[in-house]
Amino acid sequence: MAILISRSRNFNHFLLSTRFRFLSRLNQTSSKTFSHHAKTSSFTTAAGGGFTKPTATFSGESAAVFRVERFQSNKTGEQLNTLYYEEDNHHQIIDENQVMDFPGGQLPITPQMKFIAESSEKRLPCYRVLDDDGYPIPGSIFEEVSKELAVKMYSSMVTLQVMDTIFYEAQRQGRLSFYLTTAGEEGINIASAAALSVDDFVLPQYREVGVILWRGFPLKDIANQLFGNKFDYGKGRQMPCHHGSNELNYLTISSPIATQIPQAAGVAYSLKMDKKEACAITYLGDGSTSEGDFHAALNFAAVLDAPVVFICRNNGWAISTPVNEQFRSDGVASKGQAYGIRSIRVDGNDVLATHSAIRAAREMAIKEQKPILVEAMTYRVAHHSTSDDSTKYRPVEEIEHWKTAKSPISRFRKWIQRNGWWNDENESELRGDTRKQVLQVMQAAEKVEKPPLTDLFTDVYDKVPLNLQEQHKFIRDAVKKSPREYPSDVPI
Amino acid sequence: MASSFRRIGKLATISSKNQSRRFSSTVDQTLKKSEGISPSKSVNLFTAINQALHIALDSDPRAYVFGEDVGFGGVFRCTTGLADRFGKQRVFNTPLCEQGIVGFAIGLAAMDNRAIAEIQFADYIFPAFDQIVNEAAKFRYRSGNQFNCGGLTIRAPYGAVGHGGHYHSQSPESFFCHVPGIKVVIPRSPHQAKGLLLSSIRDPNPVVFFEPKMLYRMAVEEVPEDDYMLPLSEAEVIREGSDITLVGWGAQLSTMEQACIEAAKEGISCELIDLKTLIPWDKETVEASVKKTGRLLVSHEAPVTGGFGAEISASIVERCFMRLEAPVARVCGLDTPFPLVFEPFYLPTKNKILDAIKSTVNY
């Protein structure tokens, strides 16, 4: 992501007014200090799979340079001198026993007029386990995965990729009206899905078809939805790629951006009240974080202690809008703390890191009954959808780089292959079989007739009201009069 | 519809310091339903709402009440005593964010709970419009009935209060009447409010329930203390007549009723219908009445253009064209933002309605 979201770290020392003069005297004082973030907490989770080591450590404080700027008042000239912001959140505290009482709690007092810097000096690091060549980074802490799980995760990513390729082509051939792929984000899809329990409720955006596949949604049901045939659970009412399954606790996708996020807080609250060993998980993109619903959701989840894991796929692009035109913050993970939400940034193209991070996030969400924010860094190799040509707004070389050198699939393959869990023969067999399966379900789904006309009118309400009964009759009569105006594959 | 043309005799008087408004009551009718066993008390509208919420929470452990300031009893006192009785996990304040309230409520309702969300004023419901229109209303449909948020009820006080200006007076019901998948319900009195709110909470569809805040304290009526429900999508003829049909809902009905009484003094017999549920609405009751009287007047506080009165007017013209003896009259709010000083000019007052009754009858 660095190439996408790197930005200037220049901090402007600005003057509030002409009466203020910048005093360049920076004192390394020995004054008593107070830091809001001085508490260092660590946690160890023992997940179902068994963590061999502590999975993560939260350290609120890095060894940042401590600077204290003097605030001086000059009576005659009323000149005030200060450095107006802090990059490290250190403030000079007069006396730790001296506090001010406000409705939100006690606050320490500082004589300094100090603005908090717009961002910290150092960018939040990205948790990673495997390097680009699939070698574990020395000292990396992660949850071990068995051969079986690793192979299943790998196979699922390949399935997702093969499926996406075929359906994308089918749309190009005019067989499907629309499609969008997860290309480049197969890692987040599968690694996060694998870290969850099927009892956890998923509120997806729309680029997480891998999660429902992982839960056991058959390829044929994917195809039925894409063709909107009579076996589509959604009864042909929504565009392709809007899956949902009650059985698999995967709430039906809707197109509007970010609407699912506050709903996840409500779902989580219900799980909390029912004392379930489960949490809600919601997926969103970097663009979603600009919507009011994102803010609402994080704030509600934090205030109401809702066990929900927010997974932001920061893939660099909201259709054509790059992240540096989306927000000025250090990405998304940095927003968590302002809401009182524990957060992590993880390499979303690193299956082991993502899997570990989501496992830990889930554990904490459930055990501590609170929300967790995960920012998974990745790249949308795919065009936004089949209605988009992303080469119009980003260089082909950039896409190609992420498609090949940075692919989460090939990185993970290197690792499992090096472990002796996978070989070229397995690879060609898997790809061949999957291709066959996808083509088969697609051909079958394409031939199935559409849902009956009745399905146009049911489910608006639990029962069909009189006005819809009348309209149903009206449409049947209209079809009788001009049958050629209407699709012939919809049973009347 | 079943209750059409029932004679409602009793008129309760609402008194306040400055004015007196009257409205129709159906007390005797519903008492009959509950076999007269239920004790009833004379209470105001916010107390009736409060009773309904107590019953909803008491009768269903999966019911929740939340919104801005509901914890201490709410700015209109509708949630008084709920948090004490049912605990802060079931009755709680939320952050000040309407889209958050409704989004959260949809998620809660999707998990088979009764999510009773309060929006403090209907004027502030718009940040939640997306959640209501694109999410709540389509939740069942888009999933092929795999999921639904039917346990969702959004309560919001609406309408003029005499001093509310732009942002404490609006009647935004027509925006929501354009949204298949939700129901819109507006009660006219304490007794109606309790029964309709309990029905809305228990209805397996998301409901937007607008409460006439003008009547919170002003309207007092005998209300059974028991749990009772009044049917949705059923209009009620609250005053029978033969010369003209008047259709309205909520607080406007008392103004309309006063006009009916005045008209009667001049020998005009008005039939007054309370629509109660705006979508899906009971066309049949209105149609039957207009076929009898040959004339229709619709009245609401919301601006006339694009108001729900337009829908009623068009539907009745479609169904009763040959029976109509005059154009349908609409006496509604003006097409301006809701004004402060000019509120008496803006509102569809008794005399405006009376004038329209006369000109329609004498057309």
Task: Give a structural overview.
The complex is a heterodimer of chains A (492) and B (363). By secondary structure, chain A is α/β, with parallel strands linked by helices. Among the domains of chain A are: 145-445, 3-Layer(aba) Sandwich (Rossmann fold); 451-483. Chain A has helices spanning 2-5, 147-172, 186-195, 209-214, 219-227, 260-273, 292-303, 333-339, 351-368, 396-403, 408-418, 424-447, 466-481, and strands spanning 20-21, 26-27, 33-34, 42-43, 56-57, 68-69, 72-74, 79-81, 85-86, 91-92, 99-102, 105-108, 115-116, 201-203, 280-285, 308-314, 317-318, 321-322, 342-347, 372-377. In chain A, the strands form 8 sheets. Chain A has a 5-stranded parallel β-sheet, with helices on both faces. In chain A, strands 1-8-7 form a 3-stranded mixed β-sheet, with no helix packed on it. Chain A has a two-stranded antiparallel sheet with strand order 2-6. In chain A, strand 17 (317-318) and strand 18 form a beta hairpin. The two termini of chain A are 52 Å apart. Residues 1-82 of chain A have low confidence and may be disordered. Chain B is globular and about 60 Å long. A 7-stranded mixed β-sheet of chain B has the order 5-4-6-7-9-8-14, with helices on both faces. In chain B, strands 11-13-12-15-16 form a 5-stranded mixed β-sheet, sandwiched between helices. Chain B starts with 10 loop residues before the first strand and ends with a helix. Chain B has 2 domains: 40-224, 3-Layer(aba) Sandwich (Rossmann fold), CATH 3.40.50; 236-362, Rossmann fold, CATH 3.40.50. The model of chain B is unreliable at 1-34 (pLDDT under 50). Chain B is of the alpha/beta class and 363 residues long. At the A-B interface, helix 6, helix 7 and helix 13 of A face helix 4, helix 5 and helix 6 of B. Chain A: Heterotetramer of alpha and beta chains. Chain A: Its main location: mitochondrion. Chain A: InterPro entries: Alpha-ketoacid_DH_E1_comp (IPR050771), DH_E1 (IPR001017), THDP-binding (IPR029061). Chain A: Belongs to the BCKDHA family. Chain A: It is found in: Mitochondrion matrix.
